[in-house]
Amino acid sequence: MSKVYFIPANANENVLLIEKLGTLLGRVGVGNLNGVVALKMHMGERKNKTFLKPVYVRKIVEVLKKHGGDTFVTDTTTVYKLARYNAMDYYRTAFEHGFLPSYLGCPVIIADGLKDEGVQVNEKVEIARSIYDSDAMLLLSHATGHGSASFGGAIKNVAMGCVTKKSKIYQHEVTKPTYDNELCTQCDACIEECKFDAIEIKENGDRDDRELINEKCVGCGCCIAACETGALHLQVGAKENFQLRIAEVANTVLKSLPYSNCIFINFLIDITPFCDCEDLSPEYMCPDIGILASKDIVAIDQATIDLIGKHSFEGDPTIQVKEAHRLGLGEQEYEICRV
Asked: Where are the beta strands (DSSP E) in 9-158?
């Protein structure tokens, strides 16, 4: 069984979590992360309140440095057009959230750069350039629910966060909405929300219909969130298919990197039903649980789901985990080792 190391959380004692991070990282083998180390994480959409805070990242950077790692904090730009759509906006958002190089003790680099640069490893997947060019990676994931993927953990962090827009769009092909004209009230909130002009008004006698232009749609789901009647909704099976694509891309990324030195850290704190791309008021699925670390991406996500409770998620969060296991990324059986 794969080993998953665990620091339990204590109420109002996050300082103890920070103090134990060094021990946790030592147990999972952080000393093997040599050379230039990409510390991949999600620095939070602007106005999001529950993203992992810089104080944890600063401690991890400190530990990596002690073991000889030359670290930079990184993420990639988004497929939807908010405050992380391009590198310049992402830098502004990251700095606003406290991810300042002077505080972290290392550079902050948006991995796909100013021009969405990546290394194409197959027809569907491009790995963000700075992540591909590193010597090792520490993947820092904030465990949450997710509207389309049911669960966001390490597998999703790799699949959606380590690639260019082209590969994000490939994954989101299966989340393009379907339109039910009978439920449409013609409020046009979807048209106002869509930044890609993918919804158009078509004359149809006495009633104008709304039409989804498939070629323009990137499957970001913003129009679905804006539609209050359900006229725009995911197709049947979309959530399951999305998880399968996430596992597929994560598998391709991890097996195509020119290095195999990867460690996965999952933070089970401030666990919300939505990911850190959302700027909604926080609501929590359960109390804080702690921090997990492993060299096995499948085991750590399975352990995360088990600790939170599979019943807490919308849909089946284990589809991506089972598929990642089937593809040979890791084992679902694990041993929890308390630190």
From this structure: 35-40, 69-75, 108-110, 118-120, 126-128, 136-142, 144-146, 150-152
How are the residues of the chain apportioned to helix, strand and coil, as percentages rounded to the nearest 5? 35, 20, 40
pLDDT at 105 > cutoff 60: yes
Three-point CA angle 29, 33, 34, nearest 5°:
140
Q: How far apart are CA 56 and CA 54, in angstroms?
A: 5
Residue-range domain boundaries for the chain: 2-172+238-338, 177-233
Q: What is the dihedral of CA 39, 42, 47, 51, to 10 degrees?
A: -80
- pLDDT higher than threshold 60 for residue 247: yes
What pTM did the predictor assign?
Answer: 0.95
Joined together, the tokens standing for residue 26 give: 């030592």
* Topology annotation, domain 2-172+238-338: Rossmann fold (3.40.50)
Say if 2-172+238-338 and 177-233 have the same CATH topology: no
- To the question of domain 177-233 being in CATH 3.40.640.10, the answer is no
